[in-house]
Structures are given as structure tokens and as C-alpha cells.
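We examine the record.

___
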Amino acid sequence: MLAVRAYELMVICDGDLDESTVAGVINRITAEVADASGTVATTDKWGKRRFAYEINKKHEGFYVVFEILAEPGALDRLETTLRLADEVVRHKLIRLPDHEAARRGLTEQASPVEAG
């Protein structure tokens, strides 16, 4: 069994979408993570924000940040789905460093004092 890792996924949906469509995107992401045997620990909806620069002739989008626990490679299909989704303007998936995941309470990490 592979170790479960913590990830942060930021998704920016098209600013022209209505709230229910954005909620549908969030639900699809959550379902796809579950299908990959992962868990969405938190979903943080930042709401509609103005872009620092124009993206695809758009000036604003809905920002949503997910904290996800999954095995390495389990989210590859999700990334492909997001790349192809018309509603998603941009997305970024990063693996959180172990100490940051522990700080956020997503994983447990032995402190250096206990390990030594």
C-alpha cells in the first residue's frame, strides 16, 4: 500500500458561470477524488475574484481551493479532466510538503524530537 499524501488543488472556473454550475464543478471534482480512493479534506470557496491579467479574454473567475488526501498518482485522471473541462479556466495541483500537511492537520508527522 502506498503512503497517502496531502495535495492542494486550486481551480479557477469561468467568471461568467452561475453559482449552480460552479457547485456542479465542485461536486464533480469531489466525486472524481472519491473514485480515485482519495478524500477531500476541505473545500474553500474564495468566490469571484478579478484576475491580475486577462486569461482567455476573461477578467474574473471563481476560485476554489481543495485540500485532498490521496495516494501518489491517484489524481492523474482528475488533472486530465480539469485540463479538458470548458468551465475551468486554470487549475494547479501541488503536493504539500509533509511538514505543511502536518501543520494543517491533514497528516500526522513525528516531530524531530520524537524521531531522534
